[in-house]
Specification:
The protein is globular, with a radius of gyration of 19 Å. Helix content is 41%, strand content 15%. By secondary structure, it is an alpha/beta fold. The protein has a six-stranded parallel β-sheet. It has two domains: 131 residues, Rossmann fold (3-Layer(aba) Sandwich), CATH 3.40.50.10860; 119 residues, NAD(P)-binding Rossmann-like Domain (Rossmann fold, 3-Layer(aba) Sandwich). Bound molecules: nicotinamide-adenine-dinucleotide. The site of nicotinamide-adenine-dinucleotide (NAD) has 26 residues, from helix 11.
């Protein structure tokens, strides 16, 4: 039976560290501020927003909420991002996805100043990471404002997955890591991070043939497909380390991941639960990046 990787526990440690930094900055007269931009009524975005607000409260970060109806114009969103870019009280901006289809999401994300792009999804931070100009952050837990200021932030969810693996002393180097999903927010940057950490990486997606043949080879299996119970016990080998990034809200309102926990946990050595696994760590990483951003501007 697998040992559980408790994301909640790691998240509490990260947040307690964040809180100390927030207090330290407070002593210098700097209040740390995070802007949260939500468009429409997407249920999972609303849940993510309320969890983030709760985490802000517990770390004394001041949240600035920007809520818009589904009908908001591109112009209004861009003007809001520009106002946030120029707002000295705000050190980071998180935009909740998905945005309405008619809104050009990439244009919105790329209008965030890289030094306030604490979710690290703009073309500049992604490009710098791909060019190995910001990989140092994967190795240093130090708050090094000089590094972050010049190099951009790492995307919170994949960065959190790496932190979680390290917290549980999972050796990444030389292992075969299989990532399911190739999205810009999760699968793609996670694959790059695992590659940076010298895993042999295979990326699967919805067009991948014989998924089970590949997942059975994984020493580390990370699932971010958004498909409930996509991976079952017969699709993994004994001893695999499993990270379930998927968050799927079922019709009965239950939240499950992409991994069939019951069957996979019988074979895995380590596994994350859903909820309580990667989700809380993602939020903690967002706050950590926000404090780094505030510190960089001392
Ligand atoms: P996305 O829809 O942008 O990407 C999904 C990816 O999965 C795609 O690359 C697609 O090709 C692949 N895929 C879909 N069906 C597949 C299948 N049957 N077999 C193999 N690959 C398949 O989604 P996303 O934004 O990357 O999010 C993925 C999941 O992770 C969602 O459930 C989302 O809610 C969750 N998520 C969790 C966190 C967290 O903090 N835990 C953060 C972000 C996203």
């Amino acid at each position: 039976m697998a040992k559980i990787m408790e994301g909640k526990r790691l998240a509490e440690e990260i947040k307690s560290n964040v809180k100390q930094k927030v207090e330290m900055l407070g002593g210098m007269g700097i209040e740390v501020g995070l802007a949260l931009m939500l468009v429409g009524d997407n249920l999972s975005s609303k849940q993510y927003l309320s969890a983030t607000l709760k985490a802000c409260k517990s770390t004394d970060i001041t949240p600035y909420e920007y809520r818009f109806p589904e009908s908001v114009s591109m112009n209004e969103l861009l003007n809001t991002v520009h106002a946030i870019n120029n707002d000295e009280r705000i050190h980071g901006l998180l935009v909740f996805f998905p945005l309405p289809r008619r809104i050009n999401s990439r244009k919105i994300v790329n209008s965030i100043l890289p030094e306030k792009d604490v979710d690290g999804l703009g073309s500049i931070p992604i490009g710098k990471f791909a060019a190995e100009e910001s990989t140092l952050q994967l190795y240093s837990k130090q708050y090094d404002p000089a590094v972050t200021q010049h190099l951009g932030f790492l995307p919170c969810t994949p960065f959190g997955v790496i932190r979680l693996l390290e917290y549980y002393n999972v050796e990444i180097k030389g292992k075969h890591a299989v990532v399911i999903g190739k999205s810009l927010a999760v699968g793609k940057p996670l694959s790059l991070m695992l590659l940076t950490k010298e895993a042999t990486v295979t990326v699967c997606h919805r067009e991948t043939k014989n998924l089970a043949d590949i997942t059975r080879q994984a020493d580390i299996l990370c699932a971010a497909a958004g498909r409930p119970n996509l991976i079952t016990g017969d699709m993994v080998k004994d001893g695999v380390v499993v990270v379930d990034i998927g968050i799927n809200v079922l019709e009965n309102s239950h939240v499950v991941g992409d991994i069939d926990f019951d069957s996979v946990s019988k074979k895995a050595s380590l596994i994350t639960p859903v909820p309580g696994g990667v989700g809380p760590v993602t939020i903690a990483m967002l706050l950590e990046n926000t404090v780094k951003s505030a510190k960089a501007r001392i």
